[in-house]
Request: fold
Amino acid sequence: MLDYAKYLLSPVLLATSAYGLWLGGPHAWLGFGLLIGILLFDAFLEPDHSLRDARFPWLYDLIVSVQLVMGFAMILFYAWLVGQGHFDSTSSKIGGFVTMMFTQFVIVAPALHEMFHRENLFHRWLGRIGMVMIFDPWREITHVVTHHIHTVTPDDPDYARRGENLYRHLAKTFAGQIAESYHLERRMWTKRERAWFDPRNAWVWRVGILVAFVGLLWLIGGGYGALAGVGVCLLGPRILLEIFNYTQHYGLVTATPGRFEPRHTWNHLTPFVRLLALEITNHAGHHEDSYKPFYELVPDRTGPKQPQFLICLLLAFVPPLWFLMIREKLHHWDRHYATPQEREIAEAENIRAGWSDLNERPTLAQARFAVAP
Amino acid sequence: MPVDTIAVPGETRAPTRADARGCRIAVAGERDFQAGRDELLLLSALNQGVNYPHSCRVGTCGRCKTRLVSGKISPLVDFALSPLTNRDLKDGYILACQAKVRSDLEIEVGLIDHRVTLPLSVVGEISGWRVLPGGVIDLRIALDEPLAFQAGQYAALAVSGSFVRRSFSFYDAPPGPEGAREVGFLVKHLPGGRFSGWLAARDRCGVRIWVEGPFGQMGLDDTPRHALCVAGGTGIAPILSIAEDRLQRFPTEGVTVVFGVRAQADLFALDRLERLSRLAPGRIRVVPILSHEPAGSGWSGARGLVTAALDPGLGIDWGRASAFVCGALPMVEAVEARLTALGLPRGRIHADKFEPSGL
Reply:
């Protein structure tokens, strides 16, 4: 039963963070401190390739459902505390905000992602409603339809090509997601012969859910509470999620667009990252079958791996350091994982990024690059 | 989860809970099979060795398009996002790869009775580049390794180092199991097209290019019958392959090719059609039809859309013929409707619909 108990870590951390917020003052930092402490400790641990006991899947589902509901309750609780003027010092204000940002990103975002991928209607709807906590209830469509189909191609707005720094990626990914989301939604309402504002269109009722969420924050926490709640959602899970996407497929290429292979993603398999992120960093398994629940994912022992996830997240903020790390990883990927066709695409991507020095045969690669479309 | 098994025909699996609540899948005019409730229709079929037409298995290619006659399924992703058209949706079409079985089903789909040739990725070099009338490039690729394909199949082409990947049909007759060392495609230059624009810009001989294939099942019809082949524009490519293949395989059967382009100046590949006429004298008839030929141009042949040529005047026994249709989506749909109205059984209409791949 230890496997099941392991996943209680996230609800326990949420409860502890909430308790810290309730105590206020310096305790507002408790949740953030605990999370960072665990993740830093995790950075020194070896990858965990173990499989989960999946005899009682309902138990996992119960834990994650509770975790998601707790996350929802916590953002309302936070808005209420802000509305009450609970955080009286600048330090506690920042501490509460940062704690919320990180708990919502590390613990709540994986739960809602897990659920909106599920086929069970209750779970899927829980995940769909939960998307208000990333302040983007439209995210599901571009994620499920675009990201999972066009993985590691420039057609996927979540994909960062070689040479792209985090800040450029953020600007590009938000614009790309909005355009793609509009394109897909319009396709749906056009095919169904509905007006764009028809309430049966998914995007319309998703607006309704988001408005209701903000309204609830307002009711509970007033103007300041709602502002703080929305700020947490946008600066926390929403942006940090894109940083996660930035790292997860960075620079990899495919010669088989639409057909995912395990080499088309990086993995982060350290024990606590696996638990807290609900195995989403066990990324190859998730992409191979995105309907497979987290407890059935099989870690890719020999697949491409990046440094521990927190380290990657921090490196991403400093582009020169990120490039220093990732160039070496990509150099290795090109030689050990890429198919011959993918190696040629990688060579062209290296030239495009100004990284010709990574190419084994730079002159030949340059000649091919010069004539490619 | 219903999708955690791998399709291994003939593999023995322990019965699962889903299997215990099995649903009967009745394929009109074909074999029946069982699928577990909540299983994906395509995966379930493949698990049992049912040769269900498919390609991408992720809802983008549309190869597993199936008409749901009765029963209940749940789509994983809204079918409005799939290649299914609005009319398909209204006519009850679904994609088997995205359909979860919820009850006994009655479906219409043409199961494959051929051994499927597994696709390969082979590198080659552009060995032939010729501009034809109508902004069409005759592209030939010399391959490093032989590639086998069947009539009417297609391949995905990607220039070395490029993410850009486009699909085109082989126009040569199938080479047999030993495969072909050189393959040919007809590429229409589309304004703004990243691949076709690049290809049309100048002679690309010598450029390294990857060919992945074969894909598709349009030409798979082993019954000796008269073949009515209808092509719009570069849709003539698979038709050339199918026509030559059938002329060789069925020495007593004829082929009628209805070939639609805009104007006389756009007529291309006539030399290849003439070659087929010499190959099988008296057994192939070619009907070029022009949709935008100026009046009084001296063109004495047929005018109008390809559907205008499809009438009893062709002298085809509609109840006995097989049809192969290839071209742009609206054209193929119009031809399918016309042929059905003329009495050609829908199951004998084999179609390949060209859809834009994006720029």
Chain A is about 65% helix and 0% strand. The longest helix of chain A spans residues 202-248. Residues 100 and 232 of chain A are 6 Å apart (CA to CA).
